[in-house]
Specification:
With about 150 residues, the chain is an alpha+beta fold. The protein has helices spanning about 5-10, 50-55, 85-95, 110-120, 125-130, 135-154; strands at about 10-15, 20-25, 35-40, 45, 65-70, 80-85. The protein is about 40% helix and about 15% strand. Strands 1-2 form a two-stranded antiparallel ribbon.
Length: about 150
C-alpha cells in the first residue's frame, strides 16, 4: 500500500462494511464534508468521500456525476455507502431522508406539512410562506415532496 493510501485510510475510523466509516481528518468548513487532497493519475480531489470512491474503484469519477452517500452522513467514506449519481439522484435521496436542499432537516412537523398541502390547493404559496415564516420555494418543495411521499405510501 502506498504512503498516500495509508495516510488517507489512517484518518478513517474503519468499522464493519454496513457501518459508516467516519473521516477523522480535516472538515470542509463550508459544508461539513471530510477534506484532504489527492493528486494522482491527473486527478485532483479535495473531498474525502470522493477520494474514497476513486481509491476504491481505481478510476476517475464519471464526468457530470456526483459521489452520493446512501447513509446521508457527510463524513462517511465507506465505499459501500458511496455511489456515483446525478444531481437528480442526490435530490431524491435528500428528500427521501427528510432533508431540504440545504441538507438541514425539514423544520415542519407532519401535521404542518398536511396543512400546507391543503392550503396550497386553494391559497397562493406566497401567503402560505408568510403564515409559516418561510420562503415560497420552501413551501413549494415541502408540498411537492409531501405529495410524492403520500403517493409512495398509497
Amino acid at each position: 500500500m502506498s504512503y498516500e493510501l495509508k495516510s488517507f485510510w489512517d484518518k478513517v475510523d474503519i468499522k464493519s462494511t454496513d457501518e459508516c466509516w467516519e473521516w477523522n481528518g480535516g472538515l470542509h468548513t463550508k459544508d461539513g464534508y471530510g477534506e484532504t487532497k489527492y493528486v494522482g493519475n491527473n486527478i485532483y480531489e479535495k473531498l474525502a468521500h470522493r477520494i474514497a470512491w476513486i481509491l476504491h474503484h481505481q478510476k476517475e469519477i464519471p464526468k457530470g456525476l456526483l459521489i452520493c452517500h446512501t447513509c446521508n452522513n457527510k463524513r462517511c467514506v465507506n465505499p459501500s455507502h458511496l455511489y456515483a449519481g446525478t444531481h437528480g439522484d442526490n435530490n431524491v435521496d435528500t428528500f427521501n431522508a427528510g432533508h431540504c436542499g440545504s441538507g438541514r432537516p425539514l423544520k415542519f412537523k407532519e401535521g404542518e406539512l398536511w396543512l400546507m398541502q391543503r392550503m396550497r390547493d386553494k391559497i397562493p404559496a406566497r401567503i402560505i410562506a408568510k403564515c409559516f415564516k418561510t420562503t415560497i420555494l420552501t413551501i413549494y418543495r415541502n408540498t411537492v415532496s409531501n405529495k410524492i411521499r403520500q403517493r409512495q405510501l398509497s
